Amino acid sequence: MVSVSDVPGAQGLSRDQLREVYFKMFLARSVGERERMLNRMGKGPFAVTGEGHEAAQVGTAYAMTPGKDWALTYYRDIGVALTLGMTPRDLLLAHLARAESIESGGRNMPSHFSSVDLRIVSGSAPVATQVPHAVGIALASKLRGLDEVAVTYFGDGGASVGDVHEAMNFAGVHSLPVIFVCENNQYAISVPASKQAAVTDLSVRAQGYGFPGVTVDGNDVLAVYSAAREAVERARNGDGPTFIEAKTYRLVPHTSDDDDSRYRSREEVEEWRKKGPLVRFGAWLEENGVATKDEIGEIEAKAMAEIDAATEYAEAAPTPDPASAMRHVFVEEE
Amino acid sequence: MAEKTMVEAVRDALHDEMKRDERVFVLGEDVGRGGVFRATEGLRDEFGEDRCMDTPLAEATIVGASIGASLNGLLPVAEIQFADFIHPAFDQIVSEAARLHYRSNGAWSCPITVRTPYGAGVHGGPYHSQSIEAFYAHVPGLKVICVASPYDAKGLLKSAIRDPNPVMFLEHKKAYRSFREEVPDEDYTIPIGVAERKREGSDMTLVTYGLMTRYSLEAAAAVQGDGGISVEVIDLRTVSPWDKECVLESVRKTGKALIVYEDNLTGGFGAEVAATIAEDAFDFLDGPVTRIASPDVPLAPYSGVLEEFILPNPEKIAEGIRKLAAY
Ligand SMILES: Cc1ncc(C[n+]2csc(CCOP(=O)(O)OP(=O)(O)O)c2C)c(N)n1
Ligand SMILES: [Mg+2]
Q: What is the pLDDT of residues B240-254, one digit of tens each?
């Protein structure tokens, strides 16, 4: 999907697309904030969100073809879910565990994204178990002669899990159309990157599995998009997997149950807030004449209106029928 | 119809299902050359490398990739070379395969089959002898089958592959080649979750599965011959979901229940059978619900004499029958 763009450095994205990317990033940021707010108000028992990861998430997902390519996400990927077509309403229904939630009808914790139509595969909580699934999906793509790509996401902590290494090795052996996206926010809850890996760039590991790995500035949405687009092209052309490490920073506590001041200074968080992906991309849009301050304000207002309407809808939506807890242990055959 | 070993019956089922449905494929360690037990022999030659695929030595990903492939339109049959080495895949089976359908409120499903040789009695030592059915029978969302006969293996494996849920298919390795049985060439299936009454009897109900079915039948014949004890033998065949009705109906008739399993006594699947009988057939019992199983030591020590000491066998089962019958 290479479109002609008159904006230098825009990676081929048109002005409308660039504004859409900003819209998705802002939407992701604000859905996260809304979920945290609802949690503090006592409405949802738990929130896990991705403020700070918007460039890494939207930048990669924007390179995918929604409904054709497969996404195997982890709990931070609000930006991936929204970019591929889930809505704030979907996410807030999940946050409040409503019956109508397409993620799980109130069975899974929030931010365990799922949509059959969008090929966002239902996720679980054990870190990184989704990674071998992406490899299996890509294997089926290859065996069936389809040009579908599977993209799987995990954190820097997740990158230590055996399943990730097994899966990358398998993908390398079979040269599968799969992309491994590591959102390296430099912490796994409180454990810093230095205690997670002895290498600075996790992407070097790809070499050991026989395919390319790149480390990108995960707060630069266009740099992420560019790496992801290239990886998608490689995968679609039958050239095999890519590992993308997007270096970023989580601007909020790990979850609503975490107090991050126990393990990182406020100054550090503030430094990263200034370098945050929305701040940066907003400035870029202005500098390059893609959107004025007012226009950015309009984009943000549109996102907020959508989130407000979604909140209202989700709060009014019914909770699940208690007895429905017994259903769907096995496939119900007619 | 021909007489076949169980490993031949397994191979026939795989072959027929691969022929019948091009979505079915086999993956695992060494399966390309037929596997260490030869259960996949000839499949690569007939169906090609893509449908009989050697994988890296990585059990979690053999199952994890199977889950993924099943989401994208295929019907994987994963072989785990020995049940003792399935533990690295426990997370993928329990957290993922078993829970995917439930956690997505029925939106996603995971039609995989995981085949693996299990069981002791072949001098396999502590790492080629384990029984694993109780771990998985405990988990909602999984079906668990234990086979130890050629006829059942073919019919149940076909059902497992066609089932829309994740199915654990446990093949007792001592039964692979130790005897032959008539196996129809035609297509047939055996329903999952249905037990088989292998022998009619009136003095007690013996509930068992896997290789212990064979040993229990030997024991039942022996006690009928010498002491005139009439034992009804039920082979569960599937431990999850299991055929409670068949068992309860029999116990209500005989008034006594003996449960025989090869796994360790504590928390073995037979404990669940015993609890159910105690709860739902209490009024009909005239003796204690009794279990014969391996004692709680790691299964199984390598030396033949140690192994023999630990594992249930026809003589120990016959002894248990006599003791219970004396009540
Ligand atoms: C296998 C497993 N171990 C531990 C946990 C508890 N846990 C949840 S998230 C997390 C940290 C993950 O960090 P990372 O992968 O870097 O992702 P991030 O939260 O930083 O985005 C831990 C330890 C878990 N969910 N699964
Ligand atoms: Mg992290």
A: 999 999 999 999 999
Cross-chain CB nearest to B105 (options A107, A126, A137): A107
Is B39 a member of any domain?
yes
pLDDT at A6: 82
Phi/psi of residue B181, each to 5°? -155, 155
B262 vs B205: CA distance, rounded Å: 17
Same domain? For B253 and B205 the reply is yes
Residue B111 CA, distance from chain mean position: 18
Q: Which of B47, B66, B103 to mutate to test the interface with A (most CBs of A within 10 A)?
A: B103
The 10s digit of each residue's pLDDT in A61-102 is 999 999 999 999 999 999 999 999 999 999 999 999 999 999
Number of domains in chain B: 2
Q: What is the pLDDT of residue A4?
A: 59
Q: How far is ligand 1, taken at its centre, from the CA of residue A127, in Å?
A: 5
Neighbour tally for B309: CB within 10 Å? 12
Residue B190 in domain: no
CA of A62 to the centre of ligand 2 (A): 22
State the pLDDT at residue B227: 84
Q: Are B216 and B260 in contact (CB under 8 A)?
A: yes
Q: Return the number of CB contacts < 8 Å for A and B.
A: 141
Please, what are the domains in chain A? 4-317 (3.40.50.970)
Q: Which residue of B has its CA nearest to A134?
A: B68
Could you read off the pLDDT of A199-232 as tens digits, one per residue? 999 999 999 999 999 999 999 999 999 999 999 9
